[in-house]
Design brief:
single chain, 455 residues, 47% helix, Rossmann fold, alpha/beta, globular
């Protein structure tokens, strides 16, 4: 094992300068190294290995990073300040596309990790979208509607000059749902006097949004999980026991689709703990959770007595020692499954992991999955449904049309099937995880060459 690690470090020595420059951005470097490990077969190619290494380093540098101060007024009339960013990472395949995240942990390194992942995720969708990410260290939790609105208006006042349907099209992410997108878009319309432009996705159906967009990430994760489980394990999702982390948009709709397909949903969680349904979540339980998170913005602990579940404080699905399940859907945030959690997941019977969040598994956790041959589909493939339907929303906006829900859902299923096919065809004798990374990377590298941007 030690010798293998030494060999791996030697093979990735071309990353030394990048690691030195960005040592203060560990999450970004984690995403870069994870991707590079998957691409080792390309880097070893005797004819094109040097090209691929140089192309990788070029992709790891954002084309542009925009930083700005966000000044907003709280309900007491006091002026508050936050930091805002937009990392425009890659426009090789199309306009910068990726969400806005509002969370106190947001910094430039976190957004670079998310933007870097977004390049390859968007490539897998087959749609003409580049990669980008943005957000602020503003925490919407505990803020009034008025405070959130005033923050969003100030944030968009700074950002709007960089947005255009052909340049940069943000969407939502953690802390940015329908409410926030509405406030952001409202301010954009005021400032620009341009109405109907698709400069944001995830909009309300009342002003240019798409059916199935709120559900798309969660639905897409389940669609690709179903394909992989049937293809690789010769099993069915129906009747299986599934755990989900998180209780936001992705988690809610992953749970809904799993219930529709006959699976048992055993958990949802938030930062305070996990709500466990030993016999599986009921439709009524799901409705209570959705109302709490979308309407009253309550914590799970406060609604436990309204459900059939039991709340365990300070726990995650991967820390519960006695909960047996078949499949895991981490849908909360990055690095939530470490090596210990991954080992417990395997011990508790986990056969597959399908990432609804971005990079929810640490590198050590991923190694545990590989060693135990767990069916593992990384976020850049498993959660691509969200940005894919955002791409569909952009197409609808450009045509001044709104497709029916059934049409969008069918396109989403077809897209997730195509992503799965790409994974299988590019795995080069390795895993589906490796196949996803290679498929996205070679597409971007080829486009860079054809544009004359790299050779």
């Amino acid at each position: 094992m030690v010798e293998e690690k030494k060999e791996e470090l030697s093979e990735l020595s071309f990353l030394t300068d990048l690691k030195s420059k960005y040592s203060h951005q560990p999450t970004f470097l984690q995403a870069v190294e994870e991707m590079a490990i998957s691409l080792k077969p390309l880097f070893k190619d005797p004819e094109k290995g040097d090209f691929y290494r140089r192309a990788f380093l070029a992709m790891a540098e954002p084309e542009r990073t925009i930083k700005f101060r966000v000044s907003w007024m709280d309900d007491k009339g006091e002026l508050r300040f936050n930091r805002g960013w937009r990392v425009e990472f890659s426009s090789v395949l199309g306009p910068y596309k990726g969400g806005l995240r509002l969370h106190p942990t947001v910094n430039e390194g976190v957004l670079k990790f998310l933007g870097f992942e977004q390049i390859f995720k968007n490539a897998l969708t087959g749609l003409p979208m580049g990669g980008g990410k943005g957000g602020s260290d503003f925490d919407p939790k505990g803020k009034s509607d008025g405070e959130v609105r005033r923050f969003c208006e100030s944030f968009m006042t700074e950002l709007h000059r960089y947005l255009h349907p052909s340049t940069d099209v943000p969407a939502g992410d953690i802390g940015v749902g329908g409410r926030e997108i509405g406030y952001l878009y409202g301010q954009y319309k005021r400032l620009s006097n341009k109405h109907g432009e698709g400069v944001l996705t995830g909009k309300s159906l009342l002003f240019g949004g798409s059916y199935i967009r709120p559900e798309a990430t969660g639905y897409g994760t389940v669609y690709i999980a179903k394909l992989a489980i049937e293809d690789k394990l010769n099993k069915s999702l129906s009747g299986s026991r599934c755990v989900i982390s998180g209780s936001g948009n992705v988690s809610q709709y992953a749970a809904e689709k799993l219930l529709q397909l006959g699976a048992k949903v055993l958990t949802v969680s938030d930062s305070n703990g996990v709500l466990v349904f030993e016999d599986g979540m009921t439709k009524k339980d799901w409705e209570v959770v959705v109302h709490a998170k979308q309407v009253t913005r309550s914590r799970l602990q406060s609604i436990a007595d309204k459900t059939t579940g039991q709340f365990y404080p300070n726990e995650k699905p991967w820390t519960l020692k006695d909960l047996k399940y078949d499949y895991a859907f981490p849908c909360a945030t990055q690095n939530e499954i470490d090596a210990e959690g991954a080992a417990l997941l395997v011990k508790n019977g986990g056969l597959g992991v399908f990432e609804g969040a971005n990079l929810p598994t640490t590198m050590e956790g991923q190694n545990v999955f590989r060693q135990n041959k767990v069916l593992y589909i990384p976020g850049k493939a498993a959660n691509a449904g969200g940005v894919g339907v955002s791409g569909f929303e952009m197409s609808q906006n450009a045509q001044r049309l709104q497709w029916k829900a059934e049409e969008v859902d069918k396109k989403l299923q077809e897209m997730m099937e195509n992503i799965y096919i790409q994974q299988k065809s590019h795995c080069m004798g390795g895993t589906l995880e490796q196949g996803a990374n290679i498929a996205g990377f070679v597409k971007v590298a080829a486009a860079m060459t054809e544009l004359g941007w790299f050779y």
